[in-house]
Every structure is written in C-alpha cells, then in structure tokens.
Write a structure and sequence with these properties.
Blueprint: H1 3-20, E1 29-33, H2 39-47, E2 52-55, H3 58-69, E3 77-80, H4 89-92, E4 98-102, H5 105-117, E5 122-127, H6 144-150, E6 157-163, H7 176-193, E7 201-203, H8 210-215, E8 220-223, H9 225-228
Parallel strand pairs: 1-2, 1-8, 2-3, 3-4, 4-5, 5-6, 6-7
Bound molecules: pyridoxal-5'-phosphate.
Length: about 230
C-alpha cells in the first residue's frame, strides 16, 4: 500500500470514530511515528503533509532532524515519545517541540535547565502508567496531583496533557478502560486547575487501538505502523 492509500484509510477510520463518539475531527491530532522507517520514508511522510512526526530515540532522530529541520526552513514539528534519559535531554530540547514522556522530577529539572538556557517553554505531556504494568514507564495515578503541583516550580515547562501507553491487546476493546481512566485523571486535573488550566490534552492510541482512544477522548493519537509503515533494518 502506498503512503497515500494508508493515509486515506486511516483518515476514514478516524472520521468514523469521531462520528461514532460525537467528536469533532479537528479535535484529534495525528502524530506520524517514524521510528520504524528510513529518512526517505520520513521525508515522504512530511511531504505528504504529516507535519507532526514522533520519534522515540534521540540518536535515530538526529539524522532525520538534520535533514528535515536543520536547514533553517520550518520543517516538521517533532514529538519525543520515548522514555527519556536525563543525559539525553540536552539533545532533545531545541529540536523536539513536544515531550510526551515526562514522568519524574529529575527529568523536569533537566528540561527546565536546558529550556531556560535557550529561552524556550516546552509543552510536555505527563506520562501515566494507568495499567500498572511494571514494564511501562510513567507515574502511578496516585502520584499525579503532587507531581503536577511540583511542576509549578519549573516555569519553562508547560504541562499540556497526559499520555499513556495501553498494554497491547489482540482485542483493542480491552484497552478502553485504560483510556477512560486517563481521561478521568485529566478531568480531575481540569477541575483542580480551574479555568485557564493547561492540562487539557490526551496523548493516547496507537495503530492497534486508536479508534477506541478517539472514542474515549484522545486529542493526540500516535500512529506508526498503520500510517507510515514499518521497514526492516
Ligand atoms: C512506537 C510507538 C508508537 C506507534 O506505534 P504503532 O503501534 O506502530 O502505531 C506510539 N507511541 C509510542 C510511545 C511508541 O513508542
């Protein structure tokens, strides 16, 4: 299947999920996750107007960033979606606009330090381990509110929403409760923050389960395999 065909098929499914759940298509943003594909395919995705690109490894992303964004033109908007080691933050800030994996204070401290040096404010998603799987990164739901409060000490970080990774299920319907739980946590934060609170977005849903995530309120879905494909090394 060509990228164009994949995009059309995904778009059709996004629209169907939106109309099933009474949501507006504009409220669902798509990140094309290019971590499984070459620079050439990544460039093709960007040319095909997939403007938001997601990568989870700093090293792999560096070449793509140089090729597509290093020349001073506008380039894609990059999302860092992987777990982020503190010592890699310096390579992320200034290249990636969004970070989807903020889950601990030492990481926040480092983001704050590097962002302040460049005079940037970094929109970050707080990653929550809703399913409680030990292999997954993220805060436990009980730690979310204290973490959000602690982030007030970091003026260069703007927490824009919550992110989670659902366990892989062959029946994606089984992930619904995970997505619903993240939305409930977000609603709780909206209430705590009052009007003008910044934590509004939900980054959830991947190739296997994005329609369920949309039905449960996702505002950013992260699509790799189904949208840009997966290439062998
Ligand atoms: C790889 C990855 C994705 C995309 O995965 P697909 O199943 O290929 O759509 C989304 N989010 C995160 C955090 C990832 O690491």
């Amino acid at each position: 299947m060509s990228m164009q065909q994949r995009m059309e098929e995904v778009e059709r499914r996004i629209q169907a999920a939106c109309s099933r759940s009474g949501r507006s298509r504009e409220d669902v943003n798509v990140i094309a996750v290019t971590k499984y594909v070459s620079l050439e395919t990544t460039a093709e995705a960007y040319r095909s107007r997939l403007n938001h690109l997601g990568e989870n490894r700093v090293q792999d992303a560096a070449d793509k960033w140089r090729a597509l964004s290093g020349g001073g033109e506008e380039g894609p908007i990059w999302h860092f979606i992987g777990s982020l080691q503190t010592n890699k933050v310096k390579d992320v800030i200034g290249k990636f606009t969004y970070i989807h994996s903020l889950d601990r204070l030492p990481l926040a401290e480092e983001i704050q330090k590097r962002a302040a040096r460049l005079n940037l404010t970094v929109p970050c998603f707080i990653q929550v381990n809703v399913s409680g799987e030990p292999s997954k990164h993220g805060l436990s739901p009980n730690d979310l509110s204290p973490f959000v409060d602690a982030l007030k000490a970091f003026p260069s970080i703007c927490p824009v929403g919550l992110m989670t990774m659902a366990p892989f299920e062959s029946d994606p319907e089984r992930t619904r409760s995970v997505f619903r739980a993240l939305r409930t946590l977000r609603d709780g934060q909206l209430e705590r923050q009052g009007a003008g609170g910044s934590i509004r977005h939900l980054s959830m849903g991947m190739s296997n389960d994005f329609e369920i995530a949309i039905e449960e309120g996702a505002t950013w879905i992260r699509l790799g395999t189904i949208l840009v494909g997966k290439e062998e090394e």
